[in-house]
Specification:
alpha/beta; Dihydrodipicolinate Reductase, domain 2; 17 strands; 26% strand
C-alpha cells in the first residue's frame, strides 16, 4: 500500500483548482503510486464560508486562512504554492525550513536573486521540489522532446516561439486584486515576460538547450489603470508585450514573442524548431497534434528519397506516445488539466526513485535568469548575457 503524502495547497484560484484536480485524479490513472496524495488542507485569504465550500468541493479534510499555521502542522508533508509571485519566496523559505516538500507555480520568483535564495533553501533542507511548468507534460511536447533526443531534427538552426493572448486590451480592465494581480508589478514582478514567456523559455531550453544571450524590446500599451486595492488610477509598470532575440549555446538562433494584445488569440502558445535533418511545430490551441518534417534518416544522416517527403501531422493519442497508455484508447484526446496530472505523477515517481522530476527549483532559477536578462536588455537596449 502506498505511503500517504499529506498535501496542503496554498491558493484556491485558477491554479489552486488545477492542482487540486491533479492530486485527486493521479491515483485513478497512474496507479500504483509510490506515494498516495491526500488532500489534507486548503489555505487561502478568504472568508471561512468560501474556504469550507472549496474544501468540500475538492475533498480537502480541513482548511486554514494562515499559511504559516499550515506549514507548522505536523500532519502536512507537502506544500503546494498557487499564490501570486510576490509570496513565493517567503512561503518556500518557511516550508523548506520546516522540512516540507514543495511544488511551486511558475515563475519561481520575482527575480533571479530571490530564486537563488529559494534554491539554496530547498537544497540545504534536502526536500523534494518542483516548479510547475506543466506544458512539458503535454504529450505532443514530450513527443517533440523524444524526436529531438533521437536525433531526428539533427543540428538545430532556428527556434521560434509565440505566446499570444488578448484579455487585457481594454483600458477599462483594472489592475490588482485577487483576479488581476498579474497586471500589478508589485505582485507579479513582470508582465508577459514572467507570466507567459517563462513557459516559452522553459520549453525552449528543455528542447534546445541553454540560451546564452538575448536582446529584447518590451511595451506597455495602456500606461494607467484603476487599481482595485487602492481605488485610484495608477501607473501600469508591467510589460504588456515583449519580443526578444536569443542565441543558444548550441549556436542556433531564437525568436520569442509574447503579448496580451493579440486580438482573437486566447492562449496561442506555439514553437517551431528547424534543424538540418527535420523540423517540429506545436500549437497549444490544437494540442493533440505534433507537426513533424522529416528530411534525413537519423540512422544514416542521408536525405530521405521518396514521394512522401513533407510535413506530417501526428495525432498524439496512441499508447506508444508519452503518457497516453494511462488514459483512453487511441484517438481519444486529453487536454489542459491532464498536464497537471502528469506533473504530479512524475513528481511522485521522482520522490520514490531519488531521481527528481524536472524542472526542479534549480531549473526554475535558470528560467528566471533568462527572464531577468530579457528585462534588463529591454531597459538598456543592448545584448545581455544570461547569468
Amino acid at each position: 500500500m502506498a505511503t500517504p503524502l499529506n498535501v496542503g495547497i496554498i491558493g484556491m484560484g485558477f491554479m489552486g483548482r488545477a492542482h487540486s484536480n491533479a492530486y485527486r485524479k493521479v491515483g485513478n490513472f497512474f496507479s500504483p503510486l509510490p506515494r498516495q496524495p491526500v488532500l489534507k488542507a486548503i489555505c487561502a485569504l478568504e472568508p471561512e464560508d468560501k474556504l469550507k465550500a472549496f474544501a468540500d468541493t475538492w475533498g480537502f479534510e480541513s482548511y486554514e486562512s494562515d499559511w504559516r499555521k499550515l506549514i507548522a502542522r505536523p500532519d502536512i508533508d507537502q506544500i503546494d504554492i498557487c499564490t501570486p509571485n510576490v509570496t513565493h519566496k517567503e512561503i518556500v523559505l518557511a516550508a523548506a525550513a520546516a522540512g516540507k516538500s514543495i511544488i511551486c507555480e511558475k515563475p519561481l520568483a520575482m527575480t533571479a536573486a530571490e530564486a537563488q535564495e529559494m534554491v539554496a533553501a530547498v537544497e540545504k533542507a534536502g526536500v523534494a521540489n518542483l516548479v510547475c511548468f506543466n506544458y512539458r507534460r503535454v504529450p505532443a511536447i514530450s513527443l517533440a522532446k523524444q524526436l529531438i533526443d533521437e536525433g531526428r531534427i539533427g543540428r538545430p538552426f532556428h527556434y521560434r516561439a509565440t505566446y499570444l493572448q488578448d484579455w487585457t486590451i481594454s483600458a477599462d480592465v483594472p489592475q490588482g486584486g485577487a483576479a488581476l494581480w498579474r497586471l500589478d508589478a508589485k505582485t507579479a514582478g513582470s508582465g508577459v515576460t514572467g507570466d507567459l514567456l517563462a513557459h516559452s523559455i522553459d520549453t525552449a531550453e528543455w528542447l534546445n538547450g541553454p540560451i546564452r544571450r538575448v536582446v529584447a524590446k518590451t511595451e506597455t500599451f495602456v500606461r494607467e489603470r484603476l487599481h482595485q486595492d487602492t481605488g485610484k488610477v495608477e501607473p501600469v509598470k508591467i510589460d504588456d508585450a515583449c519580443m526578444f532575440l536569443a542565441v543558444f549555446e548550441n549556436g542556433s538562433m531564437g525568436t520569442f514573442e509574447s503579448t496580451r494584445y493579440a486580438r482573437g488569440r486566447k492562449n496561442y502558445n506555439t514553437f517551431e524548431l528547424n534543424g538540418e535533418a527535420g523540423s517540429v511545430f506545436f500549437d497549444l490551441e490544437d494540442p493533440q497534434y505534433l507537426d513533424y518534417f522529416r528530411y534525413a534518416d537519423p540512422a544514416t544522416g542521408k536525405k530521405v528519397e521518396d514521394h512522401l517527403t513533407g510535413w506530417q501531422r501526428i495525432h498524439v493519442t496512441n499508447f506508444e506516445h508519452p503518457y497516453m497508455k494511462k488514459w483512453w484508447v487511441p484517438g481519444c484526446t486529453v487536454g489542459y488539466e491532464h498536464t497537471f496530472v502528469h506533473t504530479i505523477a512524475d513528481y511522485l515517481q521522482g520522490m520514490a526513485t531519488g531521481q527528481p522530476a524536472q524542472p526542479d527549483f534549480r531549473s526554475g532559477l535558470r528560467t528566471q535568469q533568462v527572464c531577468d536578462a530579457v528585462l534588463a536588455s529591454a531597459q538598456s537596449g543592448q545584448w545581455v548575457d544570461v547569468a
